[in-house]
Amino acid sequence: MRLEPVRSLGGWFVIAAALLACKGGSKGEITQPKLGTISGSMPNLKLRAETTRLPLVPSRSGNTDKNFGICFHYKNPSALGDVAIVVTPPSAIKTDSVELQKEKVGGGVRMKLDPLSGSEGDYCQEMFFEAGDPPGRWRFELQAGTSAVKAWDVEVYAP
Q1: What's the angle, vertex CA 25, arms to CA 21 and CA 30, rounded to 5?
Q2: Beta pairing class for 147-157 and 29-39
Q3: Are strands 108-112 and 53-55 parallel, antiparallel or unpaired?
Q4: C-alpha closest to that of 79 among 54, 106, 115
Q5: Which of 21, 28, 77, 80 shows its CA 20 to 30 Å from the CA of 146?
Q6: CA 71 → CA 14, 17, 46, 52, 131, distances in Å?
Q7: Are 143 and 149 in contact (CB under 8 A)?
Q8: CA dihedral of residues 45, 29, 147, 135 (deg, nearest 10)
Q9: Residue 75 contacts residue 119 (beta carbons within 8 Å)
Q10: pTM for this structure?
Q11: Are 113 and 101 in contact (CB under 8 A)?
Q12: Which residues contact 42 (CB under 8 A, 6 or more apart)?
């Protein structure tokens, strides 16, 4: 049997795509993103319960009785680009104790997560309110690269 080279550009593209697929050139994936209360301790945080309402209780890192987080499952993290959470509050927030790399975006802040490890795993990012943060409608958006994976609109209330 003899194979002839494909003469059209489109044929070369199909062959190149097939070769990449065979070499494991799979895209990155984030699944099961959830926002809610958390339990455990770093690095073994787990989502306790999903929620759309959070009490405005000032806290600190590690206090999982009062903190919340975004958790998700990931595959092939090197193909995801930067994974970040964009937080948009109803008015100015405190970001003094944020340890993540952050940048101002519109009326909120974009916090780049630490690099995800391995080829697949589960990840939870702990978050908490600080004294002076405002009650009202907050928006949390999980991003991979420049694409939104999921967004949550959360009612933050004064207990």
Answers
A1: 115
A2: unpaired
A3: unpaired
A4: 115
A5: 21
A6: 36, 32, 7, 14, 24
A7: yes
A8: -20
A9: yes
A10: 0.77
A11: no
A12: 62, 126
For 106-153, write each residue's pLDDT tens digit. Answer: 888 899 998 888 889 999 999 999 888 999 999 999 999 989 999 999
CB of 29 within 8 A of CB of 76?
Answer: yes
The two tokens of residue 16 are 């190149």
What would the pLDDT profile of 11-35 be if each residue is shown by its tens digit?
Answer: 433 333 343 444 445 788 999 999 9
Measure the N-to-C terminal CA separation of the chain; round to a whole number of Å. 77
